[in-house]
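Internal ticket #5521
Category: modeling
Description: The requester needs a full-assembly model to guide mutagenesis choices. All entity lines are attached below as received. Residue total reported by intake: 227.
Assigned to: D.W.
Attached entities:
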Amino acid sequence: DAGVIQSPRHEVTEMGQEVTLRCKPISGHNSLFWYRQTMMRGLELLIYFNNNVPIDDSGMPEDRFSAKMPNASFSTLKIQPSEPRDSAVYFCASSDWAANYGYTFGSGTRLTVV
Amino acid sequence: DQQVKQNSPSLSVQEGRISILNCDYTNSMFDYFLWYKKYPAEGPTFLISISSIKDKNEDGRFTVFLNKSAKHLSLHIVPSQPGDSAVYFCAASAGGRDDKIIFGKGTRLHILP
């Protein structure tokens, strides 16, 4: 398996623009998680899905953030409009919670909003 | 409010010596604890875990100790090697179907030659 695949690896955008981050989880994993990493707050859980259904979005910072999982093999995290304080590394992770604990993370998307 | 706390942002250890990374948690519902390792430009990777029914788990050079009464866990690496230089995240889960994992801010470990 190729692991969790995120795209793009890097994104630089201007304030006010829409940004879409993409994630392909490991085939067969039924849970998907979006995390954001910053120096100040470390790894924050934004939202997670079980069987494509959003379970907990309490970590989504504002209405500007939205996430979807239209099928078991794809998820998006959208920021609209983007702001400089959204600059961070965004990680997607997937797991088969019924089989074991622990996630497999993607390599992340480094977002810079200028 | 941080439920998982790693109070040391960084730690430097001589190669060959023991590295001890500490972690505290506040949520008494946590029953599973994990350590992840992260290299630059990569995602975190799972290192070792421990269930709350145990107080120690060992895997090669890595040992995790859990003190439930103190709500404290630690990761011991012995002997430390240059490749161990990375950021280490402590994490915890309350288990069950709500398996979201809460991470600490991480500790950057530098192994000195």
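Resolution: model delivered.
Comment from assignee: Chain B has a mean pLDDT of 93.
Ticket closed.
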